[in-house]
């Protein structure tokens, strides 16, 4: 057998490719195992340095955390969700974003779209003021801004660096 015949893109274009048949039990098992592992690892909050060795990210939604002298900002990407599908809470300096992504796969032969409940928690600085929190949701992006306590802002001391 010629090795080139084993590669699907080198076959005669008139022949159907073997991977198009999704009714085989092995394809169904493969798909379910992928979902099982995705669901299992989704619950782990791994540090960023570990996440890169296992792919783009284990936590969902993907977030960006930034901090200044006056505020802490958490930006989460939530594509395909609406404001009513998202719940944000702050409890003892832990910001939690949770919700549910609903989808309709009715009639789909194959789907890689994720749907289900999610939760992502982020430990914030103890300087965060729980009484001064705002959340904004636009175009599938959630931005949560937490002001720092005024007394925490005054404790910041800049140290000059000599060269």
Automatic annotation (TrEMBL):
Entries under InterPro entries matching the protein: A-crystallin/Hsp20_dom, HSP20-like_chaperone, Small_HSP
Pfam families hit by this protein: HSP20
Domain SHSP per the UniProt entry, residue ranges: 54-163
Signal sequence annotation: none
Record-linked PANTHER family: HEAT-SHOCK PROTEIN 20 FAMILY MEMBER (PTHR11527)
Family from the record: Belongs to the small heat shock protein (HSP20) family.
Protein name according to UniProt: HSP20 family protein
Taxonomic source organism: Paraburkholderia youngii
